[in-house]
Amino acid sequence: MADKKLLLIDGNSVAFRAFYALYRQLESFKSPDGLHTNAIYAFKNMLDVLLKDVDPTHVLVAFDAGKVTFRTKMYGEYKGGRAKTPEELLEQMPYIQEMLHDLGIKTYELKNYEADDIIGTFVDKGEKNGFTTTVVTGDRDLTQLASPSTTVEVTKSGVSQLEAYTPEHMKEVNGVTPTEFIDMKALMGDNSDNYPGVEGIGPKTASNLIQEYGSVENLYDHIDEMKKSKRKERLIRDKDKAFLAKKLATIDRDSPVTIDIDDVKRQPVDYEKLRQFYEKMNFRKFLAELNASGAGQGSADVEKVEYTVLNDDNVKDVKATEKDTVEFYLEMLGANYHLAPFVGFSLKLNDKIYVSRDVELLEEDNIKHILEDEKIKKNVFDLKRTMVAAHRLGIHTHGLDYDMLLASYLINNENNSNDLGEIAHLYGDYSVKTDLEVYGKGKSEHVPDNDDELFNHLASKINAIESLKKPLLEKLKDHEQDALFDTIEIPTARVLARMEMNGMKVEASTLIQLQNEFAVKLKELEDKIYDQAGEKFNLNSPKQLGHILFEKLGLPPIKKTKTGYSTSVEVLDQLKTQSPIVSEILDYRQIAKIQSTYVKGLLDVIQPDGRVHTRYLQTLTATGRLSSVDPNLQNIPTRTEEGKQIRKAFVPSEPDGYIFSCDYSQVELRVLAHVSGDQNMQEAFKTGYDIHSHTAMKIFHLDSPDQVTPLMRRHAKAVNFGIVYGISDYGLSKNLGISRKRAQEFIDNYFEQYPQIKDYMDKAVQEARDKGYAETIMHRRRYLPDIHAKKYTVRAFAERTAINSPIQGSAADIIKIAMINMQKKLDELHLKTKMVVQVHDELIFDVPKDELETIKKIVPEVMQSAVKLDVPLIADSGWGHNWYDAK
DNA sequence: AAATTCACG
DNA sequence: ACGTACGTGAATTTA
After folding, report:
1. Looking at strand B, which nucleotides approach a protein CB closer than 7 A?
2. What pLDDT, in 10s, does the model give residues A460-489?
3. Is nucleic acid strand B under 7 Å from A541's C-beta?
4. Residue A418 Cβ < 7 Å to strand C
5. Which architecture does CATH list for A669-807?
6. For the structural domain made of A513-605, what CATH number should be given?
């Protein structure tokens, strides 16, 4: 045996973490017998990762034997007052042990001792026998066991992230050695284990004292030399507690275990029993893994896929014709494909799979031809990502006309995963792993060194794209979504790829100037606020701010949050009159937001080409809208003057060019008028009335538009918005600051005046109940399982969603069509103008000076004619030498 | 990682 | 008598 590696797992604490990691899925993880299985499942997932990363020769999972231990005998309150372990977890514990047994892994518990002590004892055995040891736990106590040959991995939030405590890491975190950590705990006590240390001593002081004295014993030996202080008094008073705490905190490294290190050697897996166990638990994923590995026949633990590794010599042999269908997958590590490093690629044609780490092979003429020839159709996963990434290699892809990611998003977007493996699993294909399994995440994210492991992953991805194409296309057809897929989403992906690659020019100099101006303003406001508060504090901390406003200054706390006082605008606005500090805080907040999110944030993402290249997420939202990240260009400020200044930094590519903006007027209400068929509202749009004034006339029973006051219009506008969101009297009253009764009157009047809108809302809810989903004009679906929920709030939310989704979603369909037509038009006319940004109902263009007149004409034309509704679509334009002026 | 806050349509 | 507008992303603090 080459390496002696020991893996020690704190069974109870890891099971506990596993249980809460999948707590939200508690009810969906059940065996046919009704047993909860979430903790068992998550435990196995975590174990797989550990076995792979550590690759141990010896493994032991230690469990607690019961509540009574030598520590509880020493101190009755030990671990007292702890919340009971939930029954749903307790019932799973024996099964975790059973599974471990089937996997050939030893489990052990010892009466009167905690799992910690068993682990401590085996750490000692490991050190004496020359093992490299890894301890895994959810409990920081065990970090005292770290040594040059022993690493303690502590689960961080969930189970997938581990924090590795080596002696060095311990020093960084606590400033002491692992052994000294015990002394630290002696002074500070342990809240979760329910024993005190010395009053008034927390982690910081404890660490400092132990760094100075080395141990509790030494500290008390020299206590007389300490100068008089409150702390000294407390140290003397709580001396007994400190020594008791030290005993409780010390893990026993010599507990009377009855097994030895040879007994924890990994044993062969009992595949037959394991298979039965997985069946009993209904673990389809693990069953599939067993099948794929040909379990029991002694083969490797992953499915072996046949592939050919491409190199400079054999790459020339890869040929394809128009008759061939090709699967292509280009892998990068990281989400941002504008920058992410390439990992490799795989290519399938004529039933042969080619793989390589060397993406430059794609630039070879024959391969490049395959990717660029429109007539050779390619199946991919994430068309847009593939297209942008290929472009970085100088490859202009054409003929990418099937995208597994887009197809699965249209079929069902409840799970908005973008991981090929996860999506394949949803459709019953477990032959491919998730990226998380292969690459890891966070700090430990990396590409496997092992060629076979990586190439198998890339090859299995290609296979999944191919084998799931038929069933996915059938589903699309069933859903009447083939047109949505072929004529909207696929072309939209291509348009978006070009928009992202174009990017938008952002002038850093403008932002830096703003940064300086805002810095001065912020400083002034800060000083004023601290002055009035009578102290300095962290203005960005709602907790500290709440303390100042509601405790120190005694302002009335209007609203509470889960964790304390709310300090949101809503609250502060109401307090403005009570103290001048409030307005200054509001001003500070507003400018600080702009400074950090927009000025700093944007400066950080300007690329060397002087532009920002956002990514539009096309497969994320529940309604079919796009979203925008890195940076988000869909929430650049517009509502306040300071915020708006940001837009001055967004400029055209050419110095004398224009930013041209065109936005739909009231699309969502027009969509509502169309889908509801409401005659009164349609009439208003057809006549070209101001819709909010029209609504005001209707609900306030006025005869002429002249009688509409600004306040009435504001109220009517809020009602119109409310209708689109699935209104309630409460929501409207809160929004407008009127009584609930008055709000209800508005709504009643509204439905009286627009009766078919009321019908639409009722019908939308009823349809969602019958079909289980809501649908847009282009057959985009949103499933609403909560529409049948027992809980009123949950069900009511689903009902409002059923009303809103077809409206928001149809508007999203419409602008996607407009974008496709717009790009086509730009190409046909050979214009240099670039479409650069989409903000839900608005398109932004980067226009050379001499194309402005053409653009002014064609953009609104194309947008207004995207679809034919029963009411006209109107789009309004603006332009200027930067985004600010384009209004 | 969750919670809070606030930017947009 | 319930508790309540729809859809997003990013920065920051706190635990």
Report:
1. 1-9
2. 999 999 999 999 999 999 999 999 999 999
3. no
4. no
5. Orthogonal Bundle (1.10)
6. 1.20.1060.10
